[in-house]
Amino acid sequence: MLFKVNCAAASALLTLLLLLGFAPASRAQLGISRPKGQQLLDGIVVKVDNQIVLQSDVELIYAQEAARAEGKALPPNLKCKILQSLVLNKLMLARAEVDSVTVTDAQVNNEVDRRMAYFIQQIGSEKRLEEQYNKPIKSLKEDLRPQIKDQLIQQKMQETITGKVAVTPREVAHYFSKVPKDSLPYFSTEVEVGQIIIPAQVNEQVKQAAIAKLNDIRGQVLAGADFATLAKQYSQDPGSAKEGGYLGFFKRGELVPEYEAASMKLEPGQLSPVVQSQFGFHLIQFIERKGNTYSTRHILLKPEAGKADASEAAKLLTKLRRQILSDSITFAKAAKDHSTDKTSSVNGGLLQNRADGGTRLPLDKLDPAIFFTIDTMKVGHITPPMPYRTDDGKEAMRILWLKSNTPPHQANLEQDYQKIAAAALNEKRNKALDEWFLKNRGTVYLEIAPEYAQCKVLDVAEGR
């Protein structure tokens, strides 16, 4: 369909479509280098103080946008828009350095581990990931660390710039009115699904076996065995086992309380008794103190519950289901009080749409396990307890609730207010970033390669 729109309407439409769609995280978004065999011509195209933008940064994002377009024509100035966005990010990093905006090593390490776990899950195993990138996991993590640190600092800077930005209902309605009626997106069937997850409880016999094993290992170390060697052999902490259990330096308050409390009682070289935390059972070896930080090694054993240990979880879920259906408790209250899934329990048990932050999910984007369960359910129905395996591979039970089922429709304020509000908020945040950029662009040294001079990256507010 061909139509003419003014610049404001085009901007609103583009933002709305981006906010209402969902694209899987790319390698660039996840911060990992491209696999072996894929290479791009490289070179510095922009310098922002001591920050740089590479030709490959622009080309990789451009290639991802081309793949998303699925053969449709791309905007002629897309590379300039990509460069403008990258320059804004580099400016935020440069200003963060001046303004002393930082993130902790613990935050960076946690995010590195999270993204690496995601990649391993996506590709199937650590071995396959190492083969794909022709590097060991340790090297991949080292490649990730500086990129992720930059991303976390950018996020922190962006939060300081846009954190207080909000939209009123009137602004949402005005934003929506700018979108041409014949260009409004059409939504397929959407559902709201709630869940309550309760993990299977590890039986006492399995716990005692883990404690006994760690006490045996402790005895071996006291008899002269090497802690690091035993950690590589027995520890179930994938992040530190290959490093001989070494965790690195942490400040007080950065590790779980039980682990820190046990560590603080030790002198260099000493071993702790067996310590229990939310992650399992630890044997800790203290290494050294340095200023207000300390370093340790540990061996972690994570006793796991089996299917046979889920009976108590099933009983509790059956009771909760009966109470919800009889209106003696709400699903939201039951989820908040009992579900161990933190993401949904704080949201009334409802699964969240990561694209817009709302609770309505496209039916065709649902996890197959949920889709085939709710496909024949009526609104308001709650399933009996069903076996479930958590993201970290633990046995659990859960119940699912179909809260609503919205038929296919064209976007409108009544049914899609939350999505439209998110898009309007995003546009307003972009304007705040543009204003910040215009205010701060003169505070840094900026040099652009001749082949990108026509992009006028300093005019980012006009280029959005």
From TrEMBL:
Isomerase among keywords: yes
Pfam families named among the record's database cross-references: Rotamase, SurA_N_3
Record PROSITE patterns: PPIC_PPIASE_1, PPIC_PPIASE_2
Keyword Transferase in annotation: no
Keywords tagged on the record: Isomerase, Rotamase, Signal
GO molecular function: peptidyl-prolyl cis-trans isomerase activity
Record's signal peptide: 1-28
Domain PpiC: 188-288, 291-401
PANTHER family noted in UniProt: CHAPERONE SURA
UniProt-recorded name of the protein: Peptidylprolyl isomerase
Species of provenance: Hymenobacter montanus
